[in-house]
Design a protein that fits this description.
Helix content is 68%, strand content 0%. With 336 residues, it is mostly helical. It folds into 4 domains: 3-70, Annexin V, domain 1 (Orthogonal Bundle), CATH 1.10.220; 75-102, no CATH class; 108-233, Annexin V, domain 1 (Orthogonal Bundle); 239-321, Annexin V, domain 1, CATH 1.10.220.30. 27% of the residues are buried.
């Protein structure tokens, strides 16, 4: 890739591509994107300056090359769409998009909710059954859903979170109820197809953006009702990879509480960015020793790696509870 194009990040390259295909075609592409993607690309379009002809040509050449490589006649259209979306968005986010595209499209009302202010969404759903609210929140982006959840009555929040965590697809009756609600609110009228929304990870992602005190209250009440479910949600709320977001001082505090053997085992399953974050917050000699130990350690069981990571995360949460560590990964400036 040329240095000129390397200077443009992925969003900027997308902006350049859309600006070259004309307003009407660009508008059609933007219609297929979510609010966040539209905002990011729109901002890039507005701020891009001094884009050279060479940069534009290079972006177009790369786009053409990617299309040629990925649209061979030997692959089915559905397979191509799935693979393209997963590569572009990641498995979690792509799942909902794939449902909307390949399963016949979902309610226009649900899509409309994504663009609405959290207070407006809360007003639309606040008097509905908790199961319906859970489905709606599962469909929204986690930070958007968290804002809506914070605006709902406190007594209903734990029940809603548990329902989100327990969702495994959407049942026909719930879909019918949801469709009726959306028909009343947005005059939609389209049948809603079964969609793979909800689940423990969705609940955890939403709670990751909920204000700290509200999150604690919700989790306490969920724990009272279902301890196992609460633990599964908690396990996903701050994962080992999120340690990259802990500042240097916090990492140093954490390392003092973790044995070297546990650390080596846990890092066997970590990516290079997290490893470098750990190394950079150790003395040069300690970092060299840790690198050597990692290289010397042979293959290990995934279950052992996960156990070591959970042990370190337990220490991190204990330090966070005592105020000795700030865990990253919350929405905005919120932390636990």
């Amino acid at each position: 890739m040329s240095e000129e194009v390397q200077d443009l990040n992925g969003t900027q390259r997308a902006a350049v591509l859309l600006m070259t295909i004309g307003e009407e075609r660009a508008a059609e592409v933007l219609k297929l994107m979510g609010p966040k993607e539209v905002q990011r690309i729109g901002s890039a379009m507005a701020t891009l300056t001094n884009v050279t002809k060479a940069q534009v040509e290079r972006v177009l050449d790369e786009f053409s090359a990617v299309v040629r490589e990925q649209t061979g006649f030997g692959i089915g259209n559905e397979d191509y769409v799935r693979k393209m979306l997963i590569n572009a968005l990641g498995e979690d986010k792509a799942a909902g998009v794939i449902d909307r595209i390949l399963l016949g499209g979902s309610s226009k009302g649900l899509e409309a909710l994504k663009w609405m202010d959290p207070r407006a969404v809360a007003e639309v759903i606040r008097l509905e059954h908790p199961q319906i609210i859970a489905i709606v929140l599962s469909y929204l982006e986690p930070d958007h859903a968290a804002e809506v959840l914070s605006l709902l009555p406190e007594r209903t929040r734990p029940d809603i979170v548990m329902r989100i965590a327990s969702l495994d697809g959407i049942q026909p009756q719930a879909l019918r109820e949801l469709d009726e609600i959306l028909e009343r609110q947005f005059s939609g009228g389209n049948a809603v197809q079964s969609s793979s929304v909800g689940g423990v990870k969705t609940a955890a992602n939403i709670l990751n953006f909920v204000e700290s005190s509200a999150e604690s209250e919700i989790m306490e009440m969920v724990t009272e009702v279902d301890t196992e479910l609460a633990e599964r949600i908690q396990d996903l709320m701050f994962v080992f990879d999120n340690l990259k977001e802990v500042d240097g001082r916090g990492i140093q505090t954490l390392l003092r509480e973790v044995s070297s053997d546990t650390l080596v085992l846990a890092l066997k399953g970590a990516d290079d960015a997290l490893k470098e974050h750990i190394f950079s917050n150790m003395s040069k000699r300690a970092a060299e020793m840790l690198r050597d130990d990692l290289e010397a350690r042979g293959p290990v069981k995934l279950s052992d790696v996960e156990a070591a990571q959970k042990e370190i995360l337990a220490v991190a949460r204990r330090l966070a509870d005592s105020g000795d560590l700030v865990l990253g990964g919350k929405g905005g400036d919120q932390y636990v």
